[in-house]
Amino acid sequence: MTSNRRINLVPTDNPVRRRLLQAGLGLAGLQALDPGVSAQGSGRLGFRAIAPSLADAVRVPPGYVAQVLLRWGDPVGHASGMPAFKPDGSNNSAEQALQAGMHHDGMSFFPIDGSSDHGLLAINHEYTDESLLHFQGGKEWGPQQALKSMQAVGASVIEVRREGRDWQVVRPSPYARRITLTTPCRIAGAAAGHVSMQTAQDPLGTTVLGTMMNCANGWTPWGTYLTCEENFQAYFGASTTLEPSTLRKRYGIGQASYPHFRVEPRFDLSKHPNEANRFGWVVEIDPFDPAAAPVKRTAMGRFRHEAAVPHAGADGRVAFYMSDDEPFEYLYKFVTATAPWPGGAAGNRNLLDDGTLFVARFGEGGTGVWLPLTQDVGPLTRANGFADQASVLIDARRAADLLGATPMDRPEGCAVDRTTHEVFIACTNNAERGRPGAKEGANPANPRAPNFFGHVLRLREERDAAGATGFTWRIFLLAGDATLEAAAFKGNVRGDAFGSPDNLFMDARGVLWIQTDMSGGAIGKGPYANLGNNQVLGADPATGEVRRFLTVPRGAEAAGCVLSPDCKTMFINVQHPGERQPSTWPDGGRPRSATVVVRRLDGGIVGT
Ligand code: FEO
Ligand code: CA
Ligand code: CA
Asked: Which atom belonging to ligand 1 lies closest to the Cα atom of 325?
């Protein structure tokens, strides 16, 4: 989701490269022009790059096919009911609670019995567009509509299976599940039960109703899904004037962009000031146990969580790389205290409650340090307002400020190369950097001021240890369009032009799949004119080559890319088609976010 998105709105190829391809020179010609690209190549990228597109369609390379699998409103396959989608938006809240939510975002695939043809997909539904969700565009808006929209966010778990060439949602399925903003979630870790987490509805501070603004995601080595609460501040408003609060101010809380607080008292800060402290967490879901409550893992800190991607370190522990998506916010990691235990999810029920949260400081010369967010270490003292570890976790942003973390350009997607142990981090963009009156100018890891197109960093831990406190880093690429004159727009991409890298996924072959999120209002305009709609690009970390693989419909962002373990199927989410662009995708009516399956017509490996 683009920052500051509001509701109630109705909602090239690089020409040099294209000429070379037309001239039959292909990649060899491109390499001749760019001595920085390995002459050998690594052989990871074999598909024909596609041109930019402004079509209201999903476009894929020749030899590939894209199939819509699960749209907003399609039944997830729960045995208790599979209500059909009503194209006029008249499904009620009970029906929505059994259907896929809106605005699919992060997603993970969990094989069943090791299969690449049968598994579970856990899918985030980041937010609602109220004007698309309801009958008559939500002209009437009250408690019923609020409840429907609370049932349209959160996550879905669906069972999927390949039958012949096509994939199907298995309906009914014992795994089919919706997790919404009304699903009881357990609060675990050091902040559980803290006085700041207690509310009238939950005096113990250990259970919260639901999750929302579930943006990107991650998974654990023990087979569970991590869904990340990002722009939770959008729900919280105040019916009376509030006393100033540094905690609320640091998280931008107080100006709701959704009207729910007017009908759902727990989102009214004047009545229930602590409810906002119970959002902004990483939430662990066991996709194989539909009866297990989702768990908010407070040890991983509270911020506008984007991704939580694991790295099994050489020290046996697991690091989770986590980003806080706002201009000038930080990159974090959480390191488990021990290695995972045998026994899958059942054996690791508490592993994410015990460990250390760190924030990154990127230094000069390609080095950096991880600074621990540990109470009573360094400046995180009682005198500075941190009386206990719970206070550090709930106010992680201010703790990171005091530690001197490096302000980044909207850190979003993270991915880990399991072979080289490198961590890739997408910084989407930051038009504010270096502007007169802005907080910050350029720094080594965020070298463009302003940064219109974003960049991708690569980082490697000392000794490849999850718990390392030092790392080295490099810039992988500066996104942009090499045909533009202005240095700020050019970037240094070896291949196809793009902007605003958001989600990242590293497949089993080591291809880094970059998904973009230019805002709908920017598409096709100004410096973004040559880029077309948002896209998915394959990048080769060994050579730096980038090729455009897929373009999404008008106004949509590309999100949630994940490949099956055999790399023969790509699942990808088309999020918010129609945002500030006219779209009727996928069925010619109301635009609907959807999960799409991409595979090769010959059944081969995607990307080769
Ligand atoms: Fe929900 Fe940062 O994108
Ligand atoms: Ca985004
Ligand atoms: Ca995102």
From this structure: 2
Token couple for 593: 């976010």
Q: Is 329 in the pocket of ligand 1 (CB under 6 A)?
A: no
Mean pLDDT of the 30-59 span: 72
In short, whether 306's Cβ falls inside 6 Å of ligand 1 is: yes
Two structure tokens written together for 187: 């609060």
545 phi and psi angles, rounded to 5 deg: -70, 140
CA of 572 to the centre of ligand 2 (A): 14
CA 105 to ligand 2 centroid distance, Å: 9
Query: Which helix or strand (DSSP H or E) is residue 30 part of?
Result: helix 26-33
From the CB of 229, is ligand 1 less than 6 Å away? no
Helix axes 15-22, 26-33, angle to 10 degrees: 130
What are 342-391's pLDDT values in tens digits?
Answer: 999 999 999 999 999 999 999 999 999 999 999 999 999 999 999 999 99
Q: Which atom of ligand 1 is nearest to the CA of 304?
A: 2
pLDDT at 437: 87
- Nearest to 223, CA basis, from 113, 383, 96: 113
3-class SS of residue 339? coil
In DSSP notation, 74-140 reads: SB---TT--PPP-TTS---HHHHTTB--SSEEEEEEEESTT-SSEEEEEEEE----HHHHSGGGGSS
Let me know how long the chain is. 608
pLDDT of the residue at 158: 99
Query: Residue 347 has what pLDDT?
Result: 96
Query: Could you tell me the pTM of the whole model?
Result: 0.93
Angle at 576 between CA 572 and CA 580, to 5 degrees: 140
Please give the number of the atom of ligand 1 that sits closest to the Cα of 517: 3
Per-residue model confidence as pLDDT tens digits over 303-344: 999 999 999 999 999 999 999 999 999 999 999 999 999 999
CA of 116 to the centre of ligand 1 (A): 28
The two tokens of residue 470 are 């030092």
Indicate which atom in ligand 1 lies nearest the CA of residue 410. Answer: 2
Determine whether the shortest distance from the Cβ of 1 to ligand 1 is under 6 A.
yes
| Count of C-beta atoms within a 10 Å radius of residue 221 | 15
Beta strands in 351-478 (DSSP E): 355-362, 367-372, 411-416, 423-427, 455-461, 470-478
**427 in ligand 1 pocket by Cβ < 6 Å?**
no
Is there an atom of ligand 1 within 6 Å of 74 CB?
A: no
